[in-house]
Amino acid sequence: METETNGVAAWLMQIDRLTNLAVGQYELVHIVDQPEYTPIPQAPEYCKHVIIWNDNIVPVMNISSWVTGEVQPEDSGIVAILVYKSPQEEFLYGGIKLSNTPVLERVNNNQQCALPESLAKLKLISISCFKSSDGDVVPILDVTGLFSKKISA
């Protein structure tokens, strides 16, 4: 249970120079550094690769590319492996490209804030938003929605 002084743990994940996202402490299950990507023919720019992790085929989403509509550099980088449950209650995995290693931060209700209009597209894949200890606005990802909803560019 959250207390106003302690809060709950969340992973802050930097997806590009200007944007951080967060997930709950137990939604991020692994970090893959310098992954080996397999391309998906005719897939949208923001989700054109999969990686193999623990014998699972994991789709990798580039949220920064989805938000901006821009082609991102083809660097290997870092992939955060996130876990979510299917409607049938089975655990599934999805990856997101990061520009830095995630940082664990404690968050409490008094940090809640509105998502600024400049990040409006992130409302489609977010459940809430808070101000980090650095004062950055951080959307909290809806991991299940991110990998199970049909989103478009």
Q: At the fourth CATH level, what is the homologous superfamily?
A: CheA-289, Domain 4
CATH class: Mainly Beta
CATH topology: OB fold (Dihydrolipoamide Acetyltransferase, E2P)
Number of domains: 1
Number of helices: 2
SSE order, one letter for each helix or strand: EEEEEEHEEEEEH
Helix/strand structural class:
mainly beta
From the 3D coordinates, which CATH architecture would you assign? Answer: Beta Barrel
Q: Count of DSSP E strands?
A: 11
Descriptive report:
This protein is mainly beta. It has a single domain, classed as OB fold (Dihydrolipoamide Acetyltransferase, E2P) (Beta Barrel). Helices cover 8% and strands 41% of the residues. It has two helices and eleven strands. The strands form three sheets. A six-stranded mixed beta sheet has the order 3-7-8-6-5-4. It is globular. The model has no long low-confidence stretch (mean pLDDT 90).
